[in-house]
Write a structure and sequence with these properties.
- The protein is an all-alpha fold.
- The chain has 2 domains: 48 residues, no CATH class; 117 residues, no CATH class.
- It is 73% helix and 2% strand.
- The chain has a two-stranded antiparallel sheet.
Length: 173
């Protein structure tokens, strides 16, 4: 009897940890996403292919790496402020291109992840999202340290770090 109640406690803890994992923004736990992007298995249940999820896991990091390598020389040449303006224009250009050629059903590139219709579009959206994050991560902290007054410079960089990690913290609830 004691063994049974201990195993029930462990099962309850496992279920709670799985529920916490689902609330951490993991899109592959979303059944609507799985039905839209996944493929039916022989039993007729939609599932995601493991190779696709592996690719998605790497795409955002790849986009960040590409941006950090490519944006730094531009940032050094143009300056941080003008690089941030240039990044805004690039995003505007991507939006205009998508609308003009009707390559996607969206009018803003930032909504691409919302309206994907296949796994390749999701992978492309993850690269674009990673590129944006990498460009900001390689430009904004340096811009802050260059322009912040000496007496509050550390606090400004710390505030940037806190605002970057705050959404991750809030997702855990």
């Amino acid at each position: 009897m004691a063994t049974r109640s201990v195993s029930m406690v462990h099962a309850d803890e496992r279920n709670r940890s799985l529920a916490r994992a689902d609330r951490q923004g993991n899109i592959i736990a979303n059944l609507g996403f799985v039905r839209r992007i996944g493929y039916p298995n022989p039993a007729g249940i939609y599932a995601l292919k493991p190779q696709h999820t592996a690719i998605w896991g790497a795409m955002q990091s790849l986009g960040q790496l590409i941006a950090m390598v490519l944006v730094n020389p531009v940032s050094d040449r143009l300056g941080r402020k003008y690089t941030l303006y240039l990044l805004w224009l690039v995003l505007l250009g991507v939006r205009t291109f998508l609308v003009y050629c009707r390559c996607a059903e969206v009018s803003q590139s930032l909504l691409l992840e919302t309206f994907v219709i296949n796994w390749q579009m999701w992978a492309g959206a993850k690269i674009l999202a990673g590129f944006g994050v990498g460009a900001i991560q390689s430009t904004l902290p340096v811009y802050i340290t260059e322009w912040a007054p000496t007496n509050i410079r550390g606090a400004m960089v710390l505030a940037y770090g806190i605002w970057n990690s705050k959404p991750i913290y809030l997702q855990s609830f």
